[in-house]
Design a protein that fits this description.
alpha+beta; Chitinase A, domain 3; four-stranded antiparallel beta sheet; three-stranded antiparallel beta sheet; 11 helices; 7 strands; disordered N terminus
Length: 351
């Protein structure tokens, strides 16, 4: 349990320390530095001093001085005349901050303060632990071994994400042409006929009435009657209250199961689909309009999908290069590893 707590703390450290709160975000009329350095700081700048307080501190100047720590290590130096002081320069502190913020997001003044306080606390405990001999224990070595594995793997993943973040124009155009069907959109209308009446009537008899009503409804729809009126007449004829809306809005292919998508997208604007029998209802679809979005309209979506696919392929290549056998007498039967990207359930029109 202690080990798990250590790993949880380490994995959440960057986000919790450096995240920018909503109050620290720049307003539309503020420059980023003004929002981060000026407004987020509770201490107003002195007369003549820039609101960006970092510009007044040189790279080799100390931004943190810790008294009482005598050990020397990377990123610190002894203050002249006081061997038991440790100084962290602006350059060293910002190097750490960049390493913990690979996405380059804006760090609020509060986030910088949080990291500074956590840094001092960590150094203080590190000094005490070293003096207590914690570094020499097997437990420490094993935890650091595991933390190193996780950290280097996370950094590699981040590098892959950055590498594939921006596909080229040729890749974008090629993906658009190859997946043209996925950018079709259909404005869908629907007639819904329930197969059950919960008032207690005979289910089989009601289902027969519902089927007859649905068949008549489709004939009216093909002949051009307004679907909204057809839907109201069906509910009135079956003694039901609250007919549902017939205009379902716009859908894409992935919002349906494969067969449904094939049926719906095969229809031309104005066409009425076949009567479909589902578990609790009879359904008739009509296409009000169809369009194919332009490449410019879906560029952001393509960029995301191409970059994510290349990233997933790279992860899969890593895992495929290192297959493993597990001793079932020790581990039992191992579950199958989860897919790198899980399936996305279709949105589908609500029934």
């Amino acid at each position: 349990m202690w080990l798990l707590n250590v790993l949880v703390v380490l994995s959440g450290l960057t986000f919790s320390l450096l995240q920018t709160s909503p109050s620290d975000q720049a307003s539309p009329h503020e420059k980023p530095n003004q929002a981060v350095e000026g407004r987020a700081s509770s201490i107003p700048p002195k007369p003549g001093q820039s609101a960006d307080s970092t510009s007044a501190v040189g790279e080799t100047q100390a931004v943190i001085t810790i008294h009482g720590l005598c050990a020397e290590d990377a990123g610190s130096s002894s203050k002249p005349g006081n061997p038991c002081s440790k100084q962290i320069t602006r350059k060293d502190f910002e190097r750490l901050m960049r390493a913990l913020n690979p996405g380059g997001q804006t760090i609020s003044f509060n986030g910088r303060q949080n990291l500074a306080q956590a840094y001092v606390e960590a150094l203080a405990f590190e000094d005490a632990a070293r003096k207590a001999g914690t570094e020499d224990t097997e437990e420490f070595r094993e935890v650091m071994f595991w933390v190193r594995l996780r950290t280097i793997g996370d950094l590699y993943r981040r590098n892959l994400q950055e590498k594939y973040r921006t596909p080229g124009p040729e890749e974008i155009d090629s993906y658009y042409q190859q997946h043209l069907g996925s950018f079709e959109r259909v404005h869908l209308l629907r007639i819904l006929v329930p197969r059950e009446n919960f008032s207690g009537d005979d289910k089989n008899e009601f289902d027969k009435k519902a089927l007859a009503a649905a068949q008549a409804a489709r004939t009216r729809a093909v002949n051009g009657d307004a679907l909204e009126q057809i839907q109201k007449d069906i509910y009135a004829g079956l003694g039901l209250q609250g007919p549902p809306a017939t205009d379902l809005g716009t859908y894409k292919r992935t919002d349906f199961m494969d067969k449904e998508a094939a049926d719906v997208f095969s229809l031309q604007p104005g066409e009425v689909g076949p009567l479909e029998t589902e578990i609790k209802s009879y359904v008739i679809y009509k296409v009000a309009n169809k369009e194919t979005l332009t490449e410019a309209q879906v560029k952001a979506e393509i960029i995301h999908e191409v970059s994510q696919q290349k990233y997933r392929d790279a992860l899969k290549a890593v895992m495929d290069s290192a297959p493993a056998d597990f001793n079932e007498r020790y581990f039992g039967r191992m579950p199958s590893p989860p897919p790198i990207d899980g399936p996305i359930a279709p949105r589908r029109p609500a029934h």
